[in-house]
Amino acid sequence: MILVGQYDSPYTRRVAISLKVLGIAYEHDTRSVFGDFDSMRTTNPLGRIPSLILDSGDVLIDSAAILDHIDEIVGPERALLPPSGKPRRDALQRIALANGAVDKIGGGVNYETLIRPKQYRWPDWIERCKTQGLGALAALDALAWPQDGIDQAQITTACAFDYIQVTNPDMAPAGRYPRLAALTDRLRRRAEFRETSFSDYAVPKAD
Fold first, then answer.
1. Which of 13, 103, 121, 166 lies at 20 to 30 Å from 130 by C-alpha?
2. pLDDT tens digits, one per residue of 116-142
3. Which contacts (CB < 8 Å, 24+ apart) does range 112-116 have?
4. Which residue stretches of 62-117 are H helix?
5. pLDDT digits (tens, 9 = 90+) for 12-42
6. 142 with 89, same domain?
């Protein structure tokens, strides 16, 4: 199978890490949604990442759908998301908060301040996105996190926090979110995280 998308997307990265954790081999297609948009749309009509091209030729889009398929492949005993009940609800709640933080900080704040022309920016909307993203981070930091092992809630949250630390360091300064920092630091030491590092990511500069 082929994973389409660069690792500087926390959505692509959480899929890549999950595949590696479960020992599922894949090829990596590093097309960019910005530099290769027209080509990307031949794989995913939305022109978004990630996509997973299966050996059958079928294409899965959206990281949640891809991760659901991966869990189905390995079965409930090895799946990274609990199959049912409160453990599943709790994990999905954490994943929703982590993805929401990325959406609001990465997709909201970053796009508004780094991409949209200055004269068209809406300061109140930028502040609202900051409030939402920081609220999600605070809620995640208030939770207890395992000291060992790995599951989808941990993978997604660490990918989100790592992304925010790299792209928006002022919004995740040292000491503000100690539990999230501890979780992310622990998982960064794993081979699956090191092999999908995006430390050379070039953060755009606001004008």
1. 13
2. 888 888 899 999 999 999 999 999 999
3. 113/206, 114/204, 114/205, 114/206, 115/204
4. 63-74, 85-102
5. 999 999 999 999 999 999 998 888 999 999 9
6. yes
Amino acid present at 143: L
Number of residues assigned to the chain: 207
Q: Domain count for the chain, please give it.
A: 2
Domain that holds residue 185: 85-191
Choose one of 74, 103, 133: the last residue of a domain.
Answer: 74
**C-alpha–C-alpha distance, residues 162 and 199, integer Å:** 10
For the entire predicted model, the pTM comes to 0.93
- The distance in angstroms from the start CA to the end CA of the chain is 40
Q: Which amino acid is it at 190?
A: R
Residue with tokens 């301040």: 113
Q: Which amino acid is at 25?
A: A
Burial (CB count <10 Å: 0-12, 13-18, 19+), residue 199: exposed
Amino acid, single-letter form, for residue 201: Y
Beta-strand relationship, 59-61 and 51-53? antiparallel
Last-in-domain residue among 74, 99, 133: 74
- Identify the CA nearest to 70 among candidates 28, 27, 18: 18
